[in-house]
Amino acid sequence: MRRFNKIFTFLVFLFLYIPMILLVVSSFNQGTDMAVWKGFTFSQYGELFRDRSLLRLLGNSVLVAILSSLIATILGTMAALGIHAMRGRMRRIVLGVTNIPLTNPEIVTGVALALLFAFAGTMLKINSILGFWTLLIAHVTFNLPYVILSVMPKLVQMDPDLAEAAQDLGCTPFQAFTKVVIHEILPGIVSGALMAFTMSLDDFVISYFVTGSDFVTLPVEIYNYTKKPIQPKIYALFALMFGVILLLMVAMNLLQLRDLKRRRTKLTQRREPSR
Amino acid sequence: MAKELIRLTNLTMTFEDGETILKGINLYINDHEFLTLLGPSGCGKTTTLRMIGGFLTPTSGEILFDGQRINELPPHKRKINTVFQRYALFPHLDVYDNIAFGLRLAKLSEREIDERVMEMLDIVSLKGFENRKVTSLSGGQQQRVAIARALVNRPKVLLLDEPLGALDLRLRKDMQNELKRIQQAMGITFIYVTHDQEEALTMSDTIVVMDKGHIQQIGRPEDIYNEPKNAFVADFIGESNILDGIMRQDLLVEFFGRQFPCIDKGFARDEPVDVVIRPEDIDIVPADDGHLCGTVTAITFKGVHYDIIVDFKGFKWLIQSTDYQEVGSYIGIRLNPEDIHVMKKSEYSGMFGDYSSYSAEYDEIAEGGEDEE
């Protein structure tokens, strides 16, 4: 039975990761035909890094991902603090409203944002409003709930007396946050920021609707590629992106694990006096 | 004459959910005083403390500090520091940095900070713990760090919210003495919140007994114990048998159909009263010599003494004595005038002081810590 479990688990993982493995393998293939293995090479990677326009698109994606996750992290943390200070029904309502965009179909969010920007463009008399700024605003919008949801649990776990103790010892409420509270909720802030970064980096659906031709991100451009045969250097690019995001995820998990351990030692400490 | 430091006038607090926790508190607190707010969960003692600390703004009434109204003054501008119930030490800082926290905010020189932190570590007997993580300390040690962190700022007043609640009995006794010593050595006003009557009696200069948002009695520990104002105070502080009586005249009270000389006066003629008799004041004598006679229904060994339950005409008394009495034996008791304390009738009359439902576990129930939010 146990053996069967192992085999089954292995099959599930194989099934999940076969596409990625194929992609990575293809990125090292000499030939252009995916189905035929013609020998190992780095040349696809070489070509990728010689392709200026592709690198510029990657740069665009990374720029938007960094800026939007940064802004979303700041705003999201502030929002989480505000929600945490609420009580009772108000708090439940606001948390619920925060969660809705997570389950909302991306395409609906994308079209809705595009409509909003078109409306704003008409009001402000700007001809082509879609571009970098609208893209950034859209990314911040869909990143916010992820940050709020990862910061909230840290605030709930935190000893509520800590902020009061800081004020009691002479902190203004703002200092109490920067000197004490932020240290307690930092793991939540970091994992929220990482999540926002990866969500933003690979977003296609929403980006497609809210950006114009003068600022295009990588996923949007790759969509255009699918209309013609894919160049093998794209495989190399995807393999790299997969690698980076994998690293980020591993880092995030390690961070959470460390936090969990720290909390556990704290718990045993607390129990000690009642022995 | 001690100088008045804090005055609370007509303080009330109604929370957003409409619950009124404080219903008009009037109290003054002297400089260098050790004052304890004592009462059961939900009596308003923690609310009062949080108002003095600046964490709550009263709905009405005034808080005066050195004659200045401080109702709306935020906590960081008050010369008051707090020791929190669960210590609230900063987990990301070590012992030294926790204690130095307030001094750094006050922008003292590192040399002076170092001097004062070291001095405090010495006072709370934690020398050599400077670089330890606070999460690696035991409960008692964390408690000391919390006290040091507050006292190092040399506040005029230290607020303590059930600071010993999480410690075991032995450690609690040690810390009681320690706190009293520190308070006397540093000459700081302590305002201490607890639901533990023994703790209050041991440490305080003044005890304020609270219940249901009202102050029930203010006084020195001896006065509170010996001259409780009503049945609530008599029952909450120590053990009491509380009986219905009639004040026949000054110095003469009647209960159980018999008149007893007492030392209380100032009541109306034939006024119904509550009579308090402490279990340890009662002398057991042979039935023939007794003022009252009854049957022993239960006896429990308590270490120093026995808890003996005696049935007097259907009303059960608790008597504490070092002598063993057989269950079922018929005994007499004698009461001296100073053993009898007469109180005016109050809303609490008839609610306390009857041991008919006595259970040997009453101590353990009372020990079980109550959390107050």
Folded structure, characterized:
Chain A is built from 11 helices and no strands. By secondary structure, chain A is mainly α. Chain A has a single domain (39-269), classed as MetI-like fold, CATH 1.10.3720. Chain A is globular and about 70 Å long. Chain A starts with a helix and ends with a helix. Residues 269-275 of chain A have low confidence and may be disordered. By secondary structure, chain B is an alpha+beta fold. In chain B, helix 2 (95-105) crosses helix 3 (110-123) and helix 3 crosses helix 4. Chain B is elongated and about 80 Å long. Chain B has helices spanning 45-53, 95-105, 110-123, 139-151, 169-186, 197-203, 221-226, 231-236, 362-367; strands at residues 4-14, 20-30, 34-38, 60-65, 68-69, 80-83, 157-161, 189-194, 206-211, 214-219, 241-249, 252-255, 258-261, 271-277, 283-286, 292-301, 306-312, 315-321, 330-334, 340-344. Helix content of chain B is 24%, strand content 33%. In chain B, the strands form 4 sheets. Chain B has a 6-stranded mixed sheet, sandwiched between helices. A 5-stranded antiparallel sheet of chain B has the order 13-12-11-14-20. A 5-stranded antiparallel sheet of chain B has the order 15-19-16-17-18, with no helix packed on it. Chain B contains 9 helices and 20 strands. Chain B folds into 2 domains: 4-223, P-loop containing nucleotide triphosphate hydrolases (Rossmann fold), CATH 3.40.50; 240-367, Nucleic acid-binding proteins (OB fold (Dihydrolipoamide Acetyltransferase, E2P)). The interface between A and B is medium-sized, with 28 and 35 residues.
